[in-house]
Amino acid sequence: MGVRDPHSVFDFLANPERFMAFSRWAAPLLGLLAIALAAGGLTLGLTAPGDYQQSDTVQIMFIHVPAAWLGLFAYLCLGISSFLALVFRHVLADAAAKAAAPLGAAFTALALITGSLWGRPMWGAWWVWGDARLTSVLILFLFYLGYMALRGAIEDETKAGRAAAILALVGLINLPIVHYSVVWWNSLHQGASTFGAEPQNRLPAVYLIPLLLMGLCYMAAFGSLWLVRIRAEVWRRRARALALRASGA
Amino acid sequence: MRGFGVLLRRELALAWGQGGGPLLALAFYACVVTLLPLAAGRAPERLALIAPGIAWLALALAALLSLERLFERDFEDGALDLLALGPLPLELTAFVKCLAQWLATGAPLALAAPIAALALGAPSRILPLLVLCGLAGGLAFAFLGGLGAALALGSRRGGLLVAVIVLPLFVPPVIFGAGALDALAAGLPWTGGLWLLLAYAAAAVALCPLVMAAACRNALD
Known about the structure:
The structure holds two protein chains of two kinds. Chain A contains seven helices and no strands. By secondary structure, chain A is an all-alpha fold. Chain B has one domain (2-220). The two termini of chain B are 27 Å apart. Classes of the chains: A mainly alpha, B mainly alpha.
């Protein structure tokens, strides 16, 4: 590594030294960006007028919808990192996959909890089993749990990483199937209202702008926390290597 | 081809012979089917509504039973190393193991399912479909279960781990089968669910051996 010039972002960050130098600044900067975006998005969102059908509960949307986006996005990151770790046997990609899983699980759990709190006043129930969207997000959460359980149960870290990466890729194929299998049931959850929505279903700007700000905020927060967790994993591995060397193994 | 036959006979002998084979799975199935109505309410009209679902879901749970030993036994005594060195590709070995698992537990369970469904008060016209769903779903459960068992090789607490890995993968076949059974019981068009279940089972049979072989190589490294 490192002899040839980096051709892409992946090449650039694949070098652990360069990654550590980059993330040392990028992680806190992204964190500050997330705080600024949260301040803007929440101010606009909480001062937005109540919806004519949903009154003030519409404000849950600014917490709930970006969390669901990030739950899916984090799984995509987990899948891509796992692929790079399996094919190129890259240590940093493995660390990235390991670091992404609990974050994705946390975002998915946040989406489930806030969605449930929103469903109670709007639908009259905490949870609706006949609903496609709810069920497929719950199963996404179970996939995260399975990934973390498998990763934690195998003692040899290299083998644990590779077995978990295989599982993550299987999940990546299976997720769309799970999604469409539950779409079979009628959905109570509303359809798309931001990207790719019909014009008459699109959110008015007074909700859309704070929602997009919160989406960017969650994205920045995920990026920052992900980098911090990857850094911690790199330091942990270095510490373990040093401890092994010191014990004369 | 001779290797294939010899291996299939070996795996079948192990699956039938060790720890009760299909009888143990059938006993477990009977226990689950007995417990569920006791917990869910004993009123006959209510039971008749959920009977196809109970008979179907219990099949998925019973398929989890003997997965833990599927690869672990051969991994511990070194037989898996020999199989990996042998003339058969590891993919084919994994395929044969899952096929034997299905023949020894999945198929007998599918044949027992109508008895349970009748006892719970399901309408008798769904019984042929239940057997068909049990056979196709059993194939999917056996191959997906083998995938979980191969991934969990070399772990602590194998059995519980396999269930946690595998159950989310069981979601689509469970939904497809339940959709077909419910639709038939309600007198609606039901073939769509059956086709999707067959397609999912076929995909599982085709793709899972590749993943299982990769997982075994990782564990044997």
